[in-house]
# Entry
Amino acid sequence: MTETLIKPSLIDELYLRGKVCLTAARKVHTDFKYRPYLALFADGTFLVDERAQTDIVLQNLAAEFCAAYPSQKRQKAQFVSPQLLKAIYRRAQDFDWYLPQYHVPADLSAGEKHKLRGFLVRILQRQCLSVTTITTPDWFRFYSPDKGHFALFADGWLIISEDSPCIDILSRDITQLYPQIQMVEVVPQYYINAIYERLLYTEPSAREIYINLVWQKIMQRYKISRDEALGVMQKQTNGWHELLFLTEQKARSMIYSDYVENCFIRQDAVFAAQMADKKDFRIGTFI
# Structure
């Protein structure tokens, strides 16, 4: 495999055959440091940076990976270009199993690392509203298309990045949406990154949530069971295909758009009910 072969069809073939790139998957969680230099797929396809053929450092890194994850099935290593490895991980971002690499500085001091670990232990015992579903009807309000510079928790703890361009405005806007806020804390951006990285292991992906929303809508519209709704979804070939290959970014955007649309529907219903109470008002006519 060389750079000249790096075409979408080649990447499609790798994922069609290998299904999941284990070194990019959140449920396997291999160390991020291996991503630039190798890729392992679920079918055992093992791709290694071609520079490892002559570079002793990369040879040792590949050997270290094999020793660190001995239970993973591996075929004989195939040496490929660094560009192909980059393309593999770019495509991995389109799947719901992908584990994003949030940037947490590698050069933190021992004291800073200890402080970050303590912070995560405290904060992750709470329910994060800006990443997951909750039981209240309005949870969509906090499920932003872009997690951005904040994390909101159910007990009223709002964490905002010090890199946010408008901390006061962001704090005010979120407080208006969630009056239960008890404390606002400003932290380095990598704290926010670390929060969402850890939550990926316990919370559903945006794609999973959106598919479930579509499922619920079909059940309610046709008044059918969950299994029957799945059958309806699968018969809608184009729509089903789009759902299966929905990216996380697109799914987050569609979830938020669905919330906004429902807000307008509820507002229209309230307005119609108010107008219907007036004596001379008739729906569909102008008085």
About this structure: The radius of gyration is 24 Å. Residues 35 and 226 are 39 Å apart (CA to CA). Strands lie at 38-40, 46-49, 78-80, 150-152, 157-161, 183-187.
